[in-house]
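C-alpha cells please, single chain.
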Amino acid sequence: MSVRGVDLIKAMESYAPSALAVEKDRIGLQVGDPQAEVRKVLVTLDVNEEVVDEAIRIGANWIVAHHAVIFHPLKEIRTDEPAGRMFAKLLAHGIHVYIAHTNLDAAVGGVNDALADRLGLTDTRVLIGYKQDALKKLVVTVPVDHHEAVLNAISEAGAGWIGNYSHCTFNVEGTGTFLPRDGANPFIGKTGELEKVKEIRLETVMPASIEKRVLEAMFKAHPYEEVAYDIYPLDLKGEPLGFGRIGSLPETMKLDEFARFVKDAFECDGVRVVGNPDKEIRKVAILGGSGGRYLRDVKRQGADVYITGDVDYHTAQEVIDLGISLVDPGHHVEHWVVPYVCKELEKRLNRQVPVEPSKVNTNPFRFCV
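Here you go.
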C-alpha cells in the first residue's frame, strides 16, 4: 500500500501537532499536493536551492523542513533569481515541502528536547510555557480477548502516562449488548440477533493534544466495526507546553569550561559567551533559535546560564545587568533535531518509505580565526 502526502502529514501532526504552533506561524504543506505519493523523504533544517538539488539527486519527492520556505507573501516568482529558481525546481521535479516550525520547537522530542539531550541535561522541564495541555478521560469497552491489545495500543500512543509511569488504566468487566441490523458486518454475532458479550470497560487519561493519535491507535487495535467509547473533559491541568527547556548538568562547570563543552556538544566552529568566566554553572536554560526576548523568564527560573542564538549587542548588555550568563552557539544548532524527525517519521510511517537526513550545511555563518 503506497504512502501519500496525507499520511506523511498525519504522521508529522501526531509528532508535532499544529495546535502547538504560535499564532500566524507559517507551518504545514507549503508546496505541493497532499494526495501525491511519497517515494522518499528528505529532512532538513532549511530549504534552499542546494537542498532541492540534493532531493533531486537522491530521488526524494518530499521535503520536511523546520524553517518555512514561504515566510513572507510572495510578490513574484522570477526564475532569474535564487528564490524563483528554487521554486521552479521544486515544481518541475514534483517535490512537495512540509514545514513544522514552532510546533516542532514545542513538541515532546522536538527541537529543544534534542538540544537538551545533546548536553545531557537531567530533570528537564519546559522553559517558556505558553499552552497548557488539557487532560481528557477516554473510556472504551473491549471484548475480553482483545483487551490487552487495545490497552497496549493506546498506551504506546501516549494515553495513560502519569509521571514516570505508563499504561495507567482502570478496568472493570461487564456485559455488552448489541443487535446487528441489516447492512452491519459484526465481528461477533449475527444480523437480527441480540448478542451479549463479556467485555472490559477500560478507562485512562490522555493529553488533549494527542487525542487524534490515541483514537487512531484504538480504532486500529479494536476488533469491532463500531467502537463504543466516550471522551470526557477533566478539570485537571496537564503538562505545560512551550519553548525551551531548563535542566541540570551532571556536574558543575565554570562558565568558560561550559562554553567549550557547548561548542563541542553542538560541533560548532565557535560560540559567543557573556558573563564571568569563573561563574559556576549547574542549572542550564536552552532555547533553540532566537530567544533573546526571554531573558527575564530565564532569570525568574534561576538558571545559571542561558543558551540561545541570534543574540544582539543590547541583549548581551541586558544579560550582564540581570546577573546571568549566556552562551550563543548560533541559530543553526537547531539542525540537531533532524535525526529525531527522521526517527519519528520512520516509526510513524511503519518504515514504508525511506527517510533521509539532509547532508547540506545550511549555516550561513562561519568563523574566521
